[in-house]
Amino acid sequence: MVNASSTGHAFDAGTRLRCETCGSEIQIIKACGCNPSDQVLQCCGKDMTAENAAQAADGMP
Ligand SMILES: [Zn+2]
């Protein structure tokens, strides 16, 4: 009820999350299967931003 920062969103496997503050990136290996899903991944005190999994090869040599 008081979880104001929650996005109430479950991330799909393969989704990359980035911290806009420090640039850290993580990737979802296995999606949350809870119901209701309420997965919040934070870095530097803020919710991490989901990136499109289609650009997984970006930045690779
Ligand atoms: Zn961070």
Largest sheet: 3 strands, antiparallel
Strand order of the largest sheet: 2-1-5
- CATH top level is Mainly Beta
Bound molecules: zinc ion
Distance, first to last CA: 46 Å
Number of beta strands: 5
Structural class of the helices, strands and pairings? mainly beta
Account of the protein in words:
The protein is mainly beta and 61 residues long. It has a single domain (1-51), classed as Single Sheet (Rubrerythrin, domain 2). 0% of the residues lie in helices and 21% in strands. It contains no helices and five strands. It has strands at 16-18, 25-27, 42-43, 46-47, 49-51. The strands form two sheets. A three-stranded antiparallel sheet has the order 2-1-5, with no helix packed on it. The protein has a two-stranded antiparallel ribbon with strand order 3-4. Strand 1 and strand 2 form a beta hairpin. The termini are far apart. Bound molecules: zinc ion.
